[in-house]
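Sorry to interrupt, but I need a hand with the structure work. Leave the record below and I will have a look:
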Amino acid sequence: MIVLLPVYKPGDHLPDLVEELRDADPAKHVLIVDDGSGAAADDVLAAADDGPHVTVLRHPTNRGKGIAIKTGLTWVHENFPDHDAVTADADGQHSVADILRVAERVDSTGRLVLGVRRFDTDVPARSRFGNTLTRVLFRAATGRDVRDTQTGLRGYPAALIPWLRDVTGERFEYEMNTLLEAARAGHPVEEVTITTTYLAGNRSSHFGSLSDSVRIYRPLLLSLMRLR
């Protein structure tokens, strides 16, 4: 199993997360893909890379989360073609326990797995509203009810990684596109309930409210228009 952490301007939590992952399961490999953070991230990335079973890849410029994920999936496919991958946010939102639970579900089912948040707890208003809207639109477009369409904690079985590399999208829309394409292709999706922590009101998120929302809703709306 490869734990894939796409990062941009990572904070001090990253080395701690890597260490916790290694302590919990020394056999797991941690792959960090830095999406053009520049020299300011050198110290944090060096601290995270201080140990076995850790690889750091770096984009010279910011290309988007979708590209970072695909860079990581390509590396996994080329170096560990029989390994599943779990993507997680590296800003403290996802606990090691939940990352490992998602990894276990992928291993046991061979299916795409989503770590879904509970929205009846202390979730920022914009996250709760955004998920409600995308959930309604996604159900209308695909007939599937996915409880958390915007989760960054996802498990990808090895057999689907070549397919995932071909899904379109460069930034946050990539993760929505994977769900839309999975529905069209008939790939089943498993869900694992997780506990999500929002540090400092989720200020560490690099999600641009307007521009990234447009990128996410555009493929949903296009899918709905095809049904008309």
